[in-house]
Design brief:
Blueprint: H1 12-17, H2 60-72, E1 77-81, H3 84-93, E2 100-104, H4 109-120, E3 125-129, H5 136-141, E4 148-152, H6 164-173, E5 177-181, E6 199-203, E7 217-221, H7 226-238, H8 244-254, H9 257-276, E8 281-285, H10 295-301, E9 311-314, H11 318-327, E10 332-333, E11 340-342, E12 349-351, E13 355-356
Parallel strand pairs: 2-3, 2-4, 4-5, 5-6
Antiparallel strand pairs: 1-7, 6-7, 8-9, 10-13, 11-12
Helix pairs in contact: 2-8, 3-4, 3-7
This protein binds pyridoxal-5'-phosphate.
Pyridoxal-5'-phosphate (PLP) binds at residues 83-85, 108, 110-111, 152, 156, 181, 183, 203, 205, 215, 217.
Length: 370
């Protein structure tokens, strides 16, 4: 089995690059071994050799990847799931019946759909606050109970930035916990647990893996609470831990997390500046631009780059926007071609052809319609 971190302090870059300094104790292998076994033999006293002996409960390659992520997030533990949505679904299972969830009105559509589904089933009450109004989150929480405050920052697809420390304080006052979807930031630049969040979530499919070949989700915690233990149990019962090969690929991807993130941030800033001055682009939404409404908060809580995600509002209607996407030479049009969301400026539905590569998504809206 892989060795754990020795007791001297490692820089986060080193933790990521060495998957927590994993040298296999049994063989001396310098990369974490891939344990594919679904079950593990017991010893001569019928005791399991490992803390678990069935893969759905946990296994060595999973534990190694989780330990590396927990260290990067400055957390106590991390739990890896077979997708980001599987992690979100497990967390939602821990919300007591009828309890309130507070979240921004703009966020990753899958998370929003899941909350709305639970509300429509009568399982939770849901308050969605206006992410563009600086006072709306406080108004939704002050003097009222909430079990879970869920924020995403920067927010997909407006890339608005929410103040994590302020959200954590409000969540605590409301008697709940804050969970931050930090998919678009990475621990390279923001560590939500250090800013007061109870949980941090990533769709590890994105920056953590970084190679578009692993679907994964992760939750990390700063404290081992009853809720945390329930999430771990639910993962086993639902059968959704990340399988070993994906864990191994994820660790391989994480080795370059810091260099990828930094390069991606610097590329994105150059692209954002370029398009800000472009006659066919109405607006660039990128938190690294001083013109972005979330820039001041981003400067405070994103210490090492603003990431590679941005939205471009292309002039001339949806067809023009699609033409822009399909003419790109390096950036690949992928994932969904159209999603209807609320426009950040008007609240009306927004047609969103998406372009996906390591560095950019483009949200393009019809200038004539909105
Ligand atoms: C911000 C955000 N949160 C959650 C998810 C869901 O993660 P997954 O696709 O890994 O299930 C995504 C996926 O795109 C995302 O972008």
């Amino acid at each position: 089995m892989a060795a754990s971190m020795s007791n001297f302090e490692l820089r986060p870059e080193t933790i990521a690059a060495h998957a927590l300094k994993a040298v296999d104790e049994a063989t001396g292998a310098v990369v974490p071994p891939l344990y594919l076994a679904t079950t593990y033999a017991r010893d001569e006293n019928y005791e399991p050799k490992l803390k678990e002996n069935y893969q759905r409960n946990g296994a060595p390659t999973l534990w190694q990847a989780e330990a590396a992520i927990a260290a990067l997030e400055n957390g106590k533990e991390a739990l890896l799931f077979a997708s980001g949505m599987a992690a979100i679904a497990a967390l939602c299972e821990t919300i007591p019946r009828g309890a309130r969830v507070v979240a921004p009105d703009v966020m990753y559509y899958g998370t929003r759909d899941w909350f709305v589904r639970l509300r429509d089933l009568g399982r939770i009450s849901l308050t969605l606050f206006n992410s563009r109004d600086p006072d709306a989150m406080a108004a939704a929480l002050r003097g009222q109970k909430a079990d879970l405050v869920w924020i995403e920052t920067p927010l997909n697809p407006t890339w608005d930035v929410i103040d994590i420390a302020a959200a954590a304080e409000l969540a605590h006052e409301a008697g709940g916990i804050l969970c931050v979807d930090a998919t678009a930031t990475a621990a390279v630049t923001t560590q939500p647990l250090s800013l007061g969040a109870g949980l941090v979530f990533h769709s590890a499919t994105k920056y953590l893996n970084g190679h578009s070949d692993v679907l994964a989700g992760v939750l990390a915690t700063g404290e081992i609470t009853d809720r945390w233990k329930s999430i771990a149990t639910l993962r086993t019962k639902m059968g959704s831990p990340l399988p070993p090969f994906e864990c191994w690929l994820l660790m391989r991807g994480m080795r370059t997390l810091f260099v990828r993130y930094r390069q991606s941030s610097s590329n994105a800033l150059a692209i954002a500046r370029h398009f800000s001055a472009h006659p066919n682009v109405q607006q660039v939404l990128y938190p690294g631009l001083s013109s972005h409404p979330g820039h001041a908060t981003a400067r405070r809580q994103m210490s090492d780059g603003y990431g590679g995600m941005m939205s471009l509002l292309i002039k001339g209607g949806l067809e023009n926007a699609k033409r822009f996407c399909t003419r790109l030479k390096v950036i690949v049009p992928a994932t969904r071609s159209e999603v209807s969301k609320a426009s950040p400026n008007t609240g009306k539905p927004w047609r969103v052809p998406r372009v996906r590569s390591l560095t950019i998504w483009c949200a393009c809206r019809s200038a004539s319609r909105t």
